[in-house]
Each structure stands twice: as C-alpha cells, then as structure tokens.
Model the fold of this input.
Amino acid sequence: MKQVTEIRKTAPQYRFLTVGRDGIDEEKRTVELAFSSEEPYDRYWGTEILDHAPSSVRLGRLTNGGALLLDHDPTRHIGVVEGVALGEDRRGRAVVRFGRSAEAEAAFRDVQDGIRRHVSVGYLIHRMVLQEEKDGHETYRVDDWEPIEVSLVAIPADPSVGVGRSAEPDVSTTVVRQVEDQELQPQPTTMRVIMTDETKQQPTPAELERTRASEITKLGEAYSKYVSDKDVGNAIRNGHTVEQFKDTVMAKMESRHTDTREQHIGMSTKDVQSYSFGRAILAAMTGDWSKAGLEREASMAVAKMTGRMPEGFYVPFEAFNKRDFNVGTTSEAGFLVPTDLRTDLYVDALRNAMVMAGLGVRFLPGLSGNVDVPRKATAGSLGMLTEIGSASETAPVTAKLTLSPKRVGAYTEYSKQALIQSAIPLEGLIRDDLVTGAAVLLEYQMINGAGTGAEIRGIRNTTGIGTVVGGTAGAAPAWSHFVDLESACANSNAEPDRLAGYLINTKTRGKAKQTTKSTNLGFIWDNGAQPLNGYRAAVTNNIVSNLTKGSSTTVCSNGLFSSDWSMWLVGLFGPPDVTVDPYTLAATGQVRITLNQFADAGARQPAAFAKIDDWLAG
Done:
C-alpha cells in the first residue's frame, strides 16, 4: 500500500439557513431556528454533505451553553444556545436566547421585524469519506463534524443555492489519501479520509517549543517599533509564554508613549523658558513671525517629526507644560484689567469634573500613527482525557483594539485690547482654558461617544461590556444595581482588583446618600475612600442624565463600573495644534483661538466594564 499525504492549514467552515418567523417568543427572548441540513454544498475541493445521523454530529459545544454571535465575531456575543436537536428531516435545530446588551437588543428587534433572517453555523470537520466520484467531481459525506457556534449574518456569500456561508476564511484542510496498490490488491473504489482523529499526531515537546519561539518572534517582528531583538531573545530563553510576551509588548508600548521625551524636539532649558505661547498667538494673528522665530522653528520641527503640517502652529511637548478673555466684560477679561487686581483670587469657570485619569485609565501620548493593541478574546478549550484518549485541538481566539486619530477641539475668544491690558499672563490663561476644555470633551467622548463619524467609541457604546437594567421605565438607584454591575464583570471572569471602581454623576451620588441598602441598613453611599460597595467612586456630570427608557423621557442617568480601569486606553496623536482666527469676529475686535488634539480610546478587554442606563436619580 502506498500513502500520499497533503497537509494544509485547517479552519472552521460556515453554512447558513433562514430564520423562521413563527418560532419567536418575545417574552422569553428566544428564537427557534434551523442551523444545518444535508443540502449538498460546493467547496473548492468538491461537494460536501453534512451527515445528520446522531452518531455523526458532536453537539457537546452547542449544548454546553453554545454562543450566539453576530457575523461569527466572538467579540459580538449576543446570546446563548439553550437547546439543540437533530430532526427526522435531517436538519439541525436550536433554540437561542438573546441577551440584553444594546447590540443584542437591536439584533433581536431585527429578527422580530424580519430584517435579520440568515443564520450561519460555524463547524469543524473531523472526518469525511468520499461518497461519489463522477466526471472528475468528488462528493464527500461528512460523518464526523462539530458545530461550534451559531451566528446571525447580514450578507451570506452564496444564497442562491439554498445554503451557503458567510464570507469565510481559508477553508483548506488536512487531507490523507489511502491509495491501494493495484498490483497487490485491486479495489473498485478509493476511500479518502479528511482530518480523522487517528491521523492527528500530538506535538512533541520540541515541536511545542519551536511553535512558542516562532510565535514570540513573529510578535517581535510585528511590534519591532516597541520591542527589541533583545526582548524577543530574553522571552524565548526565559521560557515566557506567548501571552506573557504580549504583556511585555503592551508594557513597552505604554512606557514609550507615556515618556514623551521621544516626541520632544530637543529644546534646551533656555529655549523652553524663552518660549512664549502668547507671542506665537500674536504672530499667527498678524502673520508677522519676525519676533517669534523660536516659536516658528519649534512648530516646524514638530511638523517634520510628525510628518504633518499644522493648521495653525504646533506647540511642542517641552513648552506646553508651562499655565483668555475680553476687556469690558466682567465675566471674561474685565476682571483682568488692573485697578487693584487680586490675581491670587482668580478662579476658572465651572466645568464637568475630569476624573478618569484618577481612576487609572492608561494614556498613550505622543502617538504618530495607528496603534494595534493585541488581546485574547476567547481562551482555548480544555477537556479531561482517558489514559490513552486523544486531545482535541484548542483554538484560542485573538482580537485587537485599533486606536486611530480623531479630532478633539476647544476654542476661546478674547479681544485684541486684552492682549495689551491684561495683568495676568494671557498665554497661561488661554492655555489652561483650551487644554481644560479639550480634556473635558475628550472625557465626555470616552464615556458617551457613539463611535460613528468623527466620534470616539465611548465605554457606553462598546460591544461586549456588561449591562444592568433597572426597569421598563427606569428605576431609582438601588443597592442591587451596584452589586449587579460588579457581578456583570466578575461573571465574565473580570474579577475586580485595586483599580476597580464606579463612575457616576452628581444626581446619582445625591440619591445614593439618601437611599438605604435595605430596611434598617446604612445608606448606599458610605463615607471614606471606597464609598460604593467597597470600591472607589468618581463623580462627574460627563456621566449623562438625559437618557430615555420607556416612558421616562430624557431623565435617566448612566452609571459605569470597571473591574480594572487600566483596561481603558487613551491614545493622543501628536502635540496640540493651535489656530488663530482674527477674521470671523473682526467686527467686534475679537480673536478666536482654537486648539485641536487628535485622540482615540478603547477597551483592551470590554468584559472589564459594565453599565446601567436607566437610573432615575434626579
């Protein structure tokens, strides 16, 4: 007997069917659907038929809390498979229950409305046998296969044949052909077996070691901007796992971007002390840079470093860490005109508090291009084996968070006269006003941004975070809500640590101070450093209080909890870009100064966050 083996990479396969409208239970949030059949399906290597005999289908993964996904994306988990059966009509059927996240709610409504009708099943082939070979075309019956998840898909690749697949990855498989020697034992047919458990060989320790070293080396090459060959070599020699090396990459990325010296243009201490923000503003306003040569050179140096010209002028990092208004208006610069001016009593405008940095979010300043942050979305599955049992292949799912520039801006207006008459250094006040205004807006976006158009995707709109519901028309903050927010993270294995805490607004804090945990128990809000459920609590009115739930219109408050606030990353792309506009308000003798900062934010692990959007706190 001669044996010929062709080895190629394996991958899950996909098919789709259509959701029936008669199997929807709105109250239980369940849908009955068919996810597979014996309909022949053409693949590039031949026709495939999924055998639906009970002995042919491994249902263990689906019956053990199988996942309902959107478009086969493991980060878009919208429900759970509650029951699976193989029908007499040779079809696989399931009952799925939808979750209560915003994305799950939207998907369930689309199913009810008949908008989402296509169901796709992802499955692994363990064995298939050649059933027929005619005119060079081969038909295989898959007599050992394993459904691993059920998905709702928007666009199947080939709906014309009754079954198809969503846009699929590489579907090549490991093929073992057994060809009988015609001279010794002639046979009328040829049997071909694909991916039999018997043909799978468990990797040796040496092969595992080579794989570990190879994956670490590939990561090092992909992120060579942050890690050196020495880092890669140390990880391999010291026996670090791939996951441990990913943590090293993340730490290097953070340290590089936190230390903005790499983004400095090399200004001396004397130059930094001489740099004048106000002088640059005057030069930009008049177009005469003859008295602002240092400021102009600094801006051009930043532009050369970033590869991007400013709309106005760049303020280098070295100079921006040094702290405007109209004369005649007491609420603006009028109080700055000297009579007997008490500059020590100047106070800034009242703004929403900025609190997320204090909670522990990670800032990556000084970015110059898009940044991909790798993470493991789903761990590989393990199982107990008999003494001589074969281990099943495990496939951990990885994902990445991409940070890309989005514009955050703020502006202030002042009169030309104020430039001359102000006794307080005008540049410091303008800088403080612009930077604070932009920072408040950035924090608002980090919480509430929709993630569409020019907006950052905030925590509230991040797919995969936990969700707690108060009531059909909202509910007053209750002790159970705070515990449920904590549990939503913990139940996803995001156990709270020292950087855990709540983020609420002033209305919720006030309500928590007046509401007891239960009869004869203390108030929800305890005094001290950890006032809510034993965790820290930050308060800002960037947490909105104008949401709608049912009949409660524009009166509901949001609340957030994170088991680890460092899982939220904020990327700052380049230095601030300042533009001076003396034309728009020229008729009133005013000048508008605008600061633009490019930034983005996102969650490394969405499961570390949970929200409630229907507190009636006001």
Remarks:
- The CA atoms of residues 444 and 542 lie 5 Å apart.
- Residues 426-448 form the longest helix (23 residues).
